[in-house]
Amino acid sequence: MEPLKIGIAGLGRLGKIHAENLVKRIPNATLTAACSILQHELDFVSKHLGIKQLYTDYDEMIRSADMDAVAIITTSGMHCAHLTTALEAGKHVFCEKPLGVTIEECKHAEKVVEAHPNQVFFLGFMRRFDASYQYAMEKVKSGAIGQPYLVKAVGIDPLKYIEGALKFAPTSGGIYIDMAIHDIDLMRWFLNDDPDTVYALGSSYGYPEFASFGDAETGCALYHFKNGGMGTIHTGRTAAHGYHIETEIVGTKGSIRISPVPQKNLAVFYNEHGVVTECVGSFPERFEAAYLKEMQVFVDCVLQATKPEISVYDGTRCTQIAFATTQSYKEGKLVNIQY
Amino acid sequence: MEPLKIGIAGLGRLGKIHAENLVKRIPNATLTAACSILQHELDFVSKHLGIKQLYTDYDEMIRSADMDAVAIITTSGMHCAHLTTALEAGKHVFCEKPLGVTIEECKHAEKVVEAHPNQVFFLGFMRRFDASYQYAMEKVKSGAIGQPYLVKAVGIDPLKYIEGALKFAPTSGGIYIDMAIHDIDLMRWFLNDDPDTVYALGSSYGYPEFASFGDAETGCALYHFKNGGMGTIHTGRTAAHGYHIETEIVGTKGSIRISPVPQKNLAVFYNEHGVVTECVGSFPERFEAAYLKEMQVFVDCVLQATKPEISVYDGTRCTQIAFATTQSYKEGKLVNIQY
Amino acid sequence: MEPLKIGIAGLGRLGKIHAENLVKRIPNATLTAACSILQHELDFVSKHLGIKQLYTDYDEMIRSADMDAVAIITTSGMHCAHLTTALEAGKHVFCEKPLGVTIEECKHAEKVVEAHPNQVFFLGFMRRFDASYQYAMEKVKSGAIGQPYLVKAVGIDPLKYIEGALKFAPTSGGIYIDMAIHDIDLMRWFLNDDPDTVYALGSSYGYPEFASFGDAETGCALYHFKNGGMGTIHTGRTAAHGYHIETEIVGTKGSIRISPVPQKNLAVFYNEHGVVTECVGSFPERFEAAYLKEMQVFVDCVLQATKPEISVYDGTRCTQIAFATTQSYKEGKLVNIQY
Amino acid sequence: MEPLKIGIAGLGRLGKIHAENLVKRIPNATLTAACSILQHELDFVSKHLGIKQLYTDYDEMIRSADMDAVAIITTSGMHCAHLTTALEAGKHVFCEKPLGVTIEECKHAEKVVEAHPNQVFFLGFMRRFDASYQYAMEKVKSGAIGQPYLVKAVGIDPLKYIEGALKFAPTSGGIYIDMAIHDIDLMRWFLNDDPDTVYALGSSYGYPEFASFGDAETGCALYHFKNGGMGTIHTGRTAAHGYHIETEIVGTKGSIRISPVPQKNLAVFYNEHGVVTECVGSFPERFEAAYLKEMQVFVDCVLQATKPEISVYDGTRCTQIAFATTQSYKEGKLVNIQY
After folding, report:
1. Which residue of B has its CA nearest to A232?
2. Which of C156, C162, C275 has the highest number of chain A CBs within 10 A, making it the mutation to test binding with A?
3. Per-residue confidence at A169, pLDDT binned at 50, 70, 90?
4. Distance, in angstroms, between C130 CA and closest chain B CA?
């Protein structure tokens, strides 16, 4: 079978990871084209990955590059426009999270996806493809913890990246939209249900600047799910120990915690501080294998004409929930989530 | 110095623990009298602990026994009446949590305590006396985690006691009043602040009977604190692995988790299940040393005429918060906490 | 029943621990007398523990103090002489490890103990009374790990006490006699067998002074047991993280590790170093409860006329094994252990 | 740069892993040929990996296939013959451990490698390429634990594979040669030194058949290193919990343990057994990434004309040490290791 020809749009930190995976680690795909508004990023993939079809204009790449599919790793605000162009041009689409930055454009994306039922649309919630999360889901499905009824999700960025977070804060949409959307996806995935109400708080003890932007350094939210389940989110930006992603699924017969100690690797140190486990320092380090896996699954879906598990509707719902959470935090009140 | 003479009221499971500690492990106290409405409990302390002054009537013990202080381990509904009688009779008082079962009696208890400023009144929130919690508080005070701004408290009873929980549920006051009050105390202690709003949920997936009693099998609550801090509580009754009490204190420079693995002891098993840490099975097992320590501190407070750290007002506030939490759960709305 | 009247000989660091336990925490014993060659130690127990019968001469205490039993916590070289005097005077004896410093005096001690079969002789291998070790033994006896065939014992003193270790080294008898004797006892206990050959090494990388005393900073020994089982010992003095006592019992169906993380308590820190468990810093901290438990068991043995599990022969054998281990290290050859 | 053309010899369990890595995950290599004496293995790589040049005769593959290098994954007894043929034909060689099954053939292999200094010879001690071992080595080199002076290596196969182990035992060369050779390599690597004496034991408590083959179910060995360092090996075949590879490096300022809990992934279960970490079940699962990494490094060494860190002399020395260890176990005496 011929490898799938893919073009990539967006060559930032995550874009480079996907580009390198497509070139080096996904045997049934070929990265044929790349697009970025930054010339030095194009030079980079030309030189290091041998990509020859280079574009500074997204629409032009879609029109003229030799490719069957596109990986959209552009800024969040462009996702919906880019996926629309691609689908309408007959391309399969891998799209980074979030689906969109307004509900309206998410709803529009749904219509575009619906209009092209034979093209794969894949939304990059990579955590679902992490080996530990996949194992946890298998165990949940096998009944190992009985009926799951509570998901407690924690996502905290490393303190060492705080300067970047502060700089990005005024335009990020806020911590619940920018960061917690992954946790929202996990809650929905493990509970197989949607929340109907949310109450959310935020604090900015270390860096009050976040509050001044209408955002929060740390957020805590509590969700009631339609079938009576519950979810909690603790999201933040100031983990001294590293990049902390932890999820607990509580069921009637037991519970599973994924990564309560976000270890860098299997080495444990016995030193003057005590017994020390060093931690992962960033999302590319933690989810390196998951980023590869999700793209591999996307490629396989296209080549084998199968449907991805994650749908465009998941993207819309996560965005709706993130907006409702943000509203609850900003208005200080309980919010009924509208779908 | 002469040992402190103490009488004990209530000889149930926890009463027996306190009685035995007073007789065997607290050298500067003497258990001189005991009261219970159950003759077999009195027989027990007579036979095994050598207590000679035995009463079935609390007031009579207070009036006539040779004692300077009383340990009140009676049913929650009697705490306020019993502490009032004792204080008015000039006795020092150790009182099990909760302070009372209505706000009114708590407020009354405050007045009685205020009227006897030279007598020690000590409220038994034993978790504060656990070595790990004390160490965590020392670390917090030393600045090890910067400014604490979030406390995440978990308290789950073992599944193996579910029958007792079901039986007790109709009269327990509900999970937030009966169980979460300890977690409420810990949040207040570590944040050194009071919450002003609460939103609480509950579910009863394994044992829907709890819902039918107006109670919940598992509860999740989110608190906003006056100074902007946050607290979460996850309380339940169905831990398959044992008795799970875990508290995380999150600060601007780090965090502390107390007992994420509620280990029975230091033995770790490598067997067909994997690497297994067996867990503590009950509150007496987990807090054995804390029950001893709190009573020792009470005795020392009396003999050295020092003030306990925990006050009657802490008791009232915890009760007020527990009531507000229950109200939020029952009414499905955000509740402003009244003090 | 009347409490057992005990005198204590030796009031150093460990002696004080036993004295305080006897006064405050063992209800069926009374510490009636104390002996030390240091006046300030006698003053200490007089003032803080209220002991009235004070002696600078051991024999005089045995002759004249009002006591049924003696706790011998004197220097190792005096253990055999002191236990002989006591047993011959009709006293029950609790004796700190080691039984003696030569095989000859151990053999002599055996004879003295045999000559007084109605008096309790109790040897203080406290690790056997630690809750985790007791639990492990219960599990082993219940068949949880099948047939145990290998014990791996680790005992490392904290680096912070290295100055004391260096000072004590020239007269300590060497690391295998001074420290590893506890590990030897544990190997014998869990395998229920005696080793017949040993090969031992030593190194002194951090503090070569140990080598110049004919001792080793760190020792590793490998034992073959009579029934075909095996044992390993890793003993040292330079644990940066604290006081490290770890024992693994390997059986045909699983294994048990006791304290691979020698945690100070249940608090776990998430900070700039990673996820950190602080460690116990000394033997009194690690074995606080075991020191109390062993003395309680001794008192109960006397009062209930039961035999202690540990015998004088255990003391001799451990000493014989420690000597053979030392010989192997010093001579660089395999040693057959003589009993 | 053109990808390296590689042929593979041996398509068993591990051979298939290497073949698949070469085809799918190593972008600068191409698997052009494959050799196996089993037709169905050749059919497999033809069908699933698209390999076209297939051989049942090794020498013929070397002579006629279009390849610059060969990966030798054949049975241990053929390694030396196969590497000789390949080197003499001008091919670069990746050779699975062990180098050879007799010292003589190892010495011969050294000469052949020396005679072809411009061809890469790479020995597959994959553990050195595991991310955790590499991180540990970096830390050691950075001085994090001071001067390393003791390595404690544990390698235990899963009990579930015991039938295969029993079947293979009569011809395996024994547990020290078949299994411990990896641990021997790690000791030498971390201590940067060679042992000069060894004492080794063995037991066969669960499966006495091993003893009847002159082998042992479990082995324990103690090594003295030339510069005074020490090493211990615990190797076995009956880990109930899974595949247990653990290594501790002890230095003057701290120590590192690699994988004391051989976790399957980051999920932790709280269930009726306690807090449970499931474990990896096999060497392909544990060292999946290391097998890929070592082959990638081999390819890079060839393409960039750099020397591998592991040399043919490492292979000889590990074999010499494994033989001496076996001799010590069989003869029950201390053995001086000859190089």
Report:
1. B220
2. C275
3. confident
4. 10
Taking the C-alpha atoms of residue D269 and residue D277, their distance in angstroms, rounded to an integer, is: 6
Which amino acid would we find at residue B186?
Answer: L
Q: Which residues contact B178 (CB under 8 A, 6 or more apart)?
A: B168, B172
Average pLDDT over residues A125-151: 98
**What contacts B21, CB < 8 A, 6 or more positions away?**
B291, B292, B295
User: Are domains A4-119 and A128-286+318-336 of this chain identical in fold?
Assistant: no
CB proximity C260 to B under 8 Å: yes
Report residue C244 as tokens: 């490290």
Domain D128-283+318-336 has CATH 3.30.360.10: yes
Confirm if C337 and C198 have CB atoms less than 8 A apart: yes
Partner residue facing C276 (CB), from A262, A263, A276 = A276
The rounded distance, in Å, linking the Cα atoms of C44 and C50 is: 9
* Predicted pLDDT at C234: 98
Domain boundaries, chain B: 4-119, 128-286+318-336
Chains that touch B (3 or more CB pairs under 8 A): A, C, D
ipTM of this model? Answer: 0.96
Q: How far is D203 from chain B (nearest CA, A)?
A: 20
The yes-or-no verdict on residue C170 having pLDDT over 90 is no
Q: Is D147 on the interface with C (CB under 8 A)?
A: yes
Architecture of domain B128-286+318-336: 2-Layer Sandwich (3.30)
pTM beyond 0.90: the answer is yes
Which residue type, as a one-letter code, is found at position C312? V
Buried/exposed C157-192: b ≥16 CB within 10 Å, e otherwise: bbbebbeebbeebeebbbbbbbbbbbbbbbbbbbbe
Mean predicted confidence (pLDDT) in C157-186: 94
A327 touches chain C (CB under 8 A): no
Residue C38 at interface with chain B, using a CB cutoff of 8 Å: no
Residue of A75, A50, A52, A72 lying closest to A62 (CA atoms): A72
Range list of β-strands (E), chain D = 4-9, 29-35, 53-55, 69-72, 92-96, 121-124, 148-158, 195-203, 218-225, 230-239, 244-251, 255-258, 267-271, 274-277, 335-336
Contact B274 D278 (CB under 8 A): yes
Could C256 and B269 be called an inter-chain contact, meaning their C-beta atoms sit closer than 8 Å? yes
Q: pLDDT tens, A199-258? A: 999 999 999 999 999 999 999 999 999 999 999 999 999 999 999 999 999 999 999 999
Phi-psi region for residue A219, left (φ > 0), alpha (ψ -120 to 50) or beta? beta
Asked if D257 lies within 8 A of A264 by C-beta distance, the reply is no
Residues C4-119, CATH architecture? 3-Layer(aba) Sandwich (3.40)
Residues of B whose CB is below 8 A from A147: 205-206
Interface test with D, best of A135, A141, A266 (most D CBs within 10 A): A266
Tell me which residue in D197, D230, D260 faces C220 most closely, judged by beta carbons: D230
**pLDDT score, position A94:** 98
DSSP for B140-163, please give it. HHTTTTSSEEEEEEEEEEEGGGHH
Position C252 confidence tier, pLDDT thresholds 50, 70, 90: very high
Give me the helix-helix angle, D181-191 and D131-141, nearest 10°: 30
B330 at the A interface (CB within 8 A)?
no
Chains that touch D (3 or more CB pairs under 8 A): A, B, C
